[in-house]
Design brief:
alpha+beta; 225 residues; 6 helices
Length: 225
Amino acid sequence: MCEVNPEYKKYVIIDKNGKKMLYVRILRVIYGCIESALLWYDLYVKTLKRMGFELNPYDKCVANKMINGTQCTIAWYVDDNKLSHVDPEVVSEVLNAIKEHFGELVINRSDEHNFSGMKITMDRKRENVVIGTRDQLQEAFDMFEEGLDGSVVSPANKNLFITYDGLSNELSEARSAIFHSVTAKLLFIMKRGRPDIETTISYLMFHVSKSNEKDWENRKDVWVF
């Protein structure tokens, strides 16, 4: 970093073992870091507990609190939250309490919500809730931009677990980005309602950083299926 930005060299310190160290403060979130995700989780849970919420013993990303005799529930995935209570005023009070700790929030208070790859639609007249992933699927289809002719009997190609490293051409940067994004979308869809594609998607997730033409074909079989 300092070789590219020499102005930071003056901030480098030497520890007792002679190792060069540079401490920095991150101004924006760095995704994909296991430790930072855990630190955020611990901070958020401590904040909710101070507000009187209790963690669900079966799902550690769900917290509940009885308010005015009715349960208030918060479910979250990293920094995406779903908050519900029968009284809209209670919802506002909880949101304001969270804002005091974390600043302004992007809030959607309507009958349609997108949460972790799911579209949640509330029909108040019929008193039901519809949860689907069609929009997520359509986004992935639109990104794929290839014809999906033919048919397959399984989402897992018979050669799925054969390693083609060095034998199959690597994807271009643009196609690799599409492969990564679409595979990630399918990961959400798999966990929500298509467990039958789990074997293929789990394998392909290990190839998103260095994908090749064979990986592209394997992912195409999932689409056809």
